[in-house]
Amino acid sequence: MAVAVAWAASVLALALAPPPASAHAAHAARPAHAARVSPDAWRIGVTAHYGPAGNASGFAAVVASGPAEAWAFGGTNPGGPSAPVALRWDGRSWQRVPLPPGLDDFISVASAPTSKDIWAASYYGGYLLHWDGARWTVARRWSSQGALTGVTAVSPLDVWVFGTSPAGGPGLGTWHLEHGRWLAVTGPDAGIYRASAVNWRDIWAIGGTARGSFVEHFDGRAWARVRTVPELAGARLHDVLAVSARSVWVAGNLPARRGVGPLVVAHWNGSWWRAFILPVHVGAGRLASDGHGGAWITATTGGQRIGAMFLHLYWSGGHAWTTVDHGLGNGVSDIALVPGTDSLWASGGFLTHSGGDAVIFARGGT
User: Residue 330: which domain range?
Assistant: First the structure.
């Protein structure tokens, strides 16, 4: 059980380490037997288990390009013989979609400029996948070992891939697909953790060093550091969301002598930054727009019972949070707004007595 608890606690960092087990069998995703709740409340949408009962399954990434097009990615049994999984939402149900054969590890990040241009990267498997509207193919493999922590696609011919830790630890570095060629980015920009694009010449990114995180901006020609606000000094940033040229969010945690520091969020309105220090000590996860000028942030609570938390930060500065209790404890990783709606999807996992199951959370009319 200690290993299972460690898995849930680290679902956001993807440091999953359950005991090795064979991953030869898989069960289809199934609707969860959840109580009837308000559409505005977060609920369990779908749960799934892959491989033997002792495996820990989880969904790490989720993207949505419309009400009838969304994807959830993850895997099973990380830390042992593992296998990635991909589920697709067609407006009615989630169905598993075949991936290229011979892949291991699990898929941790994804980007979806359109429904026919989706990119997904493994965490430590050294591969990048591409969906062209009909099938998945391996778009790039890396021969060296290292983590991939972000992928940001603008078009089929303009894709950024990042590999480092939030603190600037070594990974596979920064790569750019430009006009059919993959180019390695050197220098300080090789330490970018993840990014978010408004368009090809308006991309925002976060990275880190041992002293704290930084924000960068790409103008179509070069990356440059961005001056932020004193409230972010020493903060460890975990995500960035570029909604438009006048709306960019970053989220992370302030330093603390013990445990997790306060959650900190900052917003760029095109002219200046505005910071929000929230009175919750939970590990910051991923960001999504709420469609009304505010943002959603995922987090996973600690303590004896691990729980998934969804924090809604309103444009006015007010905030509210919801925790979802499921299984023996659960965690949430990624989150995505369904374009043109108020609905959201989120990905994660929960503990069982034998291992762990993957879960897709839902809010709104999804």
Answer: 2-363
Q: How far apart are CA 179 and CA 35, in angstroms?
A: 50
Q: How many CA atoms lie within 13 A of 152 on its CB side?
A: 27
**Are the C-beta atoms of 57 and 51 separated by less than 8 Å?**
yes
CA distances from 279 to 176, 261, 262, 282 (A): 38, 10, 6, 9
CA distances 72 to 120, 136, 242, Å, are 10, 14, 21
The CATH number that applies at residue 114 is 2.130.10.10
Residue 15 CA to residue 13 CA, distance in Å, equals 5
Report whether 103 contacts 84 (CB < 8 A). Answer: yes
Q: DSSP code of 305?
A: S
| Cα–Cα nearest to 164, from 206, 221, 203 | 206
Hey, which residues does 205 pair with through a beta bridge?
Answer: 195, 216
Among 12-16, 185-189, 216-220, name the one with the lowest average pLDDT: 12-16
> Which of 3, 27, 143, 11 is CA-nearest to residue 80?
3
Q: How many CB atoms lie under 10 A from the CB of residue 353?
A: 9
What are the strands, taking DSSP E only, across 56-157? 57-66, 69-76, 83-89, 94-96, 107-114, 117-122, 127-131, 136-141, 150-155
Q: Is 84 helix (H, G, I), strand (E, B) or coil?
A: strand
pLDDT at 20 over 60: no
- Of 203, 125, 127, which is closest to residue 160 (Cα–Cα)? 203
Confidence of residue 305 (pLDDT cuts 50, 70, 90): low
Residue 301 in contact with residue 307, Cβ under 8 Å?
yes
Of 148, 131, 250, 247, whose CA–CA distance to 192 is shortest? 148
Mean pLDDT to the nearest integer, 192-207: 98
More confident call, 362 vs 27 = 362
The amino acid at residue 310 is: F
Residue 132's Cβ-side half-sphere holds a number of Cα atoms within 13 Å equal to 8
Q: How many domains does the chain fold into? A: 1
Instruction: Please tell me what DSSP assigns to residue 28.
Output: -
Q: What is the pLDDT of residue 306?
A: 74
Q: Which two tokens stand for residue 64?
A: 């949505």
pTM: predicted TM-score of the whole model, two decimal places = 0.88
pLDDT(279) > 90: no
